[in-house]
Amino acid sequence: QVQLVESGGGLVPAGGSLRLSCVASGSISSMWRMGWYRQAPGKQRDLVATITSRGSTNYADSVKGRFIISRGNAKNTVYLQMNSLKPEDTADYYCNLLGATGTYWGQGSQVTVSS
Fold it and tell me: What are the DSSP calls for 30-92, one per residue?
C-alpha cells in the first residue's frame, strides 16, 4: 500500500507562484511514475505533469514553460513549481503515483488564482 501526502496549495494572485509537494510512503517500487493532475469544478480530472523514476518528464500543453516538475533528493518526493499562474489554473491538484502495485492518489490540494 502507498500513501501520498500533498502540501503547498493556497490562494495567489495572477502572475504569482506556488510550489506543491507530494511525499509518498509505503511499498514503493524502484520503477514508478509520479505526477500531478487537476480538476476544476464541473470538469474532468486532467494531467498536468508527470515524472518517472528515471527523470523523464511530460507536461500538458497548457502549462509548458510555466510549470516545472522535479524530484526531491529522496526518491519518494515530487514537487510542482507553478509560475506565471493564471485564473484558469484554479483547481484541485492531485498527486498521483503509478507503480508496480497499482495507482494511488493524494487527497488533493486546492489552488486558487485570483484575477
Answer: SS-EEEEEEE-TTS-EEEEEEEETT--EEE-GGGTTTEEEEE-SSTTEEEEEE-S--GGG-EE
**If you search the block for the grid coordinates 502572475, which residue do you land on?**
15
| CA dihedral for 91, 97, 102, 107, sign (positive or negative) | negative
- pLDDT, tens only, 51-110: 998 999 999 999 999 999 999 887 789 999 999 999 999 999 999 999 988 999 999 999
CB 69 within 8 A of CB 36: yes
Q: Looking only at Cα atoms, what is the longest distance across the chain?
A: 42
